[in-house]
Write a structure and sequence with these properties.
The protein contains twelve helices and twelve strands. Helix 4 (179-192) packs across helix 5. The protein starts with a helix and ends in a 7-residue tail after the last helix. The protein is α/β, with parallel strands linked by helices. The chain has two domains: 71-272, Uncharacterised protein PF07075, DUF1343 (Rossmann fold, 3-Layer(aba) Sandwich); 284-394, no CATH class. 31% of the residues lie in helices and 11% in strands. The strands form three sheets. Strands 5-6-4-1-7-8-9 form a seven-stranded mixed sheet, sandwiched between helices. Strands 10-12-11 form a three-stranded antiparallel sheet, with no helix packed on it. The protein has helices at 5-50, 75-78, 100-106, 179-192, 236-245, 284-293, 357-362, 368-376, 387-392, 396-402, 407-412, 417-425, and strands at 83-87, 92-93, 98-99, 111-116, 134-135, 142-145, 164-168, 196-200, 257-260, 313-316, 325-327, 346-350.
C-alpha cells in the first residue's frame, strides 16, 4: 500500500495535532499536581505553625508598675504628716532599686520610724533569727523590730506621734510566709490607735492560683493566723481588705486603709521580683516552688537550706542508695547558720530543672514529693516534726500521709472549705 505525498502531509498534520493535545493535557495535569502539592504543603505548614500548644509564658501588654513606683499618686498625701514605714529590702522604687524610705526622705517626707519584719529591715537575718530593734546607720532613723522578743505588734508607744503608717513589703503568696502576719498585727495596732495605714501594693508572683487545705484556726500561729489555704491568691492589699471584711482583727476593729494599687497587673500576670524577698528565696524558681516545698520544713529532711539552692533540692542522709542526686548543707551566715542535716551528705531530688509551667497548667501545689519521700524514708516514725501541723494548718494532712492516702483522697478532704474560700476571695480582689 502506497501513500501519495498529500496523504502523508495530512497524516503528519493530524499526528502533530494529536501530540499537541496530549502535551497540553500533560501540562495541565502537571500544573494540577504542582498546585495540589503546594496547597498540601501550605496546609501542613499551617498545621505545624498553629497547632495548639500549652501556654508557656503569659504575655504582658504593659509593664507592671508597683504601688510604690507611682509616687505621684501619694506624695502630696504624705506631705506634712509624720510617717512610720513597715519595710524591708524589697521596698524599692525605680530602676535603681532605691529603698522607698530613702526616696521619700529625699523628697522631703518626714519619715519618723521604720518597722522591720522577719529577716530585718535590711533583709540580712536568716530564717527564724531574732531581730532586735536598732538605729539605721544610713538614715539615723529608729528601726523597731516586729520579729524579736515576741514583739510582733507595734505598741502605742511605738506609734506615738505617727500620723500614717506605710506598709510596703513584697509577699510571695503563701500562707506561712510571715509578712502576712506582720501586716495583720500592724493593721490591728493602727486600728486601735486611730492611725491610717497606706499600702503600696505589689504583685503576687504566685497569684495565678489558689490551692491547699484551709487553715483550721485551732492551729493558729505566726505562720498562719486566718482560715485561708496554703496558696491564697491575693496581693497584700487584697489580703488587707479580706482581714477587714471578715472581721479577723481583735475585737473586730476596722483598719482605715488607703491603697495604692499596682498598675497593669492581673492575677494571670508573670512578675519577676526585682529583689529577693528573703535570704533563702534567692531564685525565681524557688519562689514558685516555695508553697509546695516549704511543707518539708516540718519534716526531718533538708530542703536545701545551707546551700545556694534552698527550696530547689530535697534529701536526707538516710536515703542513700534510693536516690542518686546528693548535696551537702553547710552553715551560711545570713542565710542559714544551722540548717537541717548540716555537714551531712543528703540524697534526694534536684528541682533546679523542674518545669514550673506544671504549676501554671495545673493550678495546684505538688503533694507528690511529700508522699513519695514519706514512702521512701526508712524511719517513718521520725519523718514528721511537730512543726508540720503548723505549716499544714491542720492535723489531717500528716495523718493522711501516714495512712497511705493518695493525692486525690487528700485533695477531696480540702472541700468544701477550699471552694468556699475561692468564692469569698472574689469580694476582695482589686485585680482581674
Amino acid at each position: 500500500m502506497f501513500f501519495v505525498p498529500s496523504q502523508i502531509c495530512g497524516f503528519a498534520a493530524n499526528l502533530i495535532c494529536v501530540l499537541d493535545r496530549i502535551m497540553i493535557r500533560m501540562k495541565l495535569f502537571l500544573q494540577l499536581i504542582v498546585i495540589t502539592w503546594l496547597l498540601l504543603g501550605a496546609a501542613i505548614a499551617q498545621k505545624k505553625v498553629y497547632k495548639p500548644h500549652r501556654i508557656i509564658a503569659r504575655v504582658e501588654k504593659q509593664k507592671i508598675i508597683t504601688g510604690a513606683d507611682q509616687i505621684n499618686l501619694y506624695i502630696d498625701y504624705l506631705k506634712g504628716r509624720n510617717i512610720g514605714m513597715v519595710i524591708n529590702q524589697t521596698s524599692v522604687i525605680g530602676k535603681t532599686l532605691t529603698l522607698s524610705v530613702d526616696t521619700l526622705l529625699k523628697l522631703g517626707i518626714p519619715i519618723k520610724k521604720i518597722f522591720g519584719p522577719e529577716h530585718g529591715f535590711r533583709g540580712n537575718a536568716s530564717n527564724g533569727a531574732e531581730v532586735n530593734s536598732t538605729v539605721d546607720s544610713a538614715t539615723g532613723l529608729p528601726v523597731i523590730s516586729l520579729y524579736g522578743n515576741k514583739h510582733y505588734k507595734p505598741t502605742p508607744a511605738d506609734l506615738k506621734d505617727i500620723d500614717i503608717v506605710i506598709f510596703d513589703i513584697q509577699d510571695v503568696g503563701a500562707r506561712f510566709y510571715t509578712y502576712l502576719s506582720t501586716l495583720q498585727y500592724v493593721m490591728e495596732a493602727c486600728a486601735e490607735n486611730n492611725i491610717e495605714l497606706m499600702i503600696l501594693d505589689r504583685p503576687n508572683p504566685n497569684g495565678f492560683y489558689v490551692d491547699g487545705a484551709v487553715l483550721d484556726t485551732a492551729y493558729r500561729s505566726f505562720i498562719g493566723l486566718n482560715p485561708i489555704p496554703i496558696v491564697h491568691g491575693l496581693t497584700i492589699a487584697e489580703y488587707a481588705q479580706m482581714i477587714n471584711g471578715e472581721g479577723w482583727l481583735k475585737n473586730h476593729v476596722q483598719c482605715n486603709l488607703k491603697i495604692i494599687k499596682a498598675a497593669n497587673y492581673t492575677h494571670s500576670s508573670t512578675y519577676k521580683l526585682p529583689v529577693n524577698p528573703s535570704p533563702n528565696l534567692n531564685t525565681e524558681k524557688s519562689i514558685w516552688l516555695y508553697p509546695s516545698v516549704c511543707l518539708f520544713e516540718g519534716t526531718t529532711l533538708s530542703l536545701g537550706r545551707g546551700t545556694m539552692y534552698p527550696f530547689l533540692q530535697i534529701g536526707h542522709p538516710a536515703l542513700v542508695g534510693k536516690y542518686k542526686y546528693s548535696f551537702k548543707p553547710v552553715s551560711i551566715p545570713g542565710m542559714s547558720e544551722d540548717p537541717p542535716q548540716k555537714d551531712k551528705i543528703c540524697y534526694g531530688i534536684d528541682l533546679k530543672g523542674y518545669d514550673t509551667n506544671n504549676l501554671y497548667t495545673s493550678g495546684r501545689i505538688n503533694l507528690g514529693w511529700l508522699i513519695e519521700f514519706y514512702k521512701a524514708f526508712p524511719d517513718k516514725e521520725h519523718f514528721f516534726t511537730a512543726y508540720f501541723t503548723k505549716l499544714a494548718g491542720t492535723d489531717k494532712l500528716r495523718k493522711q500521709i501516714e495512712a497511705g492516702k493518695n493525692e486525690q483522697e487528700i485533695r477531696a478532704s480540702w472541700e468544701p472549705a477550699l471552694s468556699k474560700y475561692k468564692i469569698m476571695r472574689t469580694k476582695y480582689l482589686l485585680y482581674p
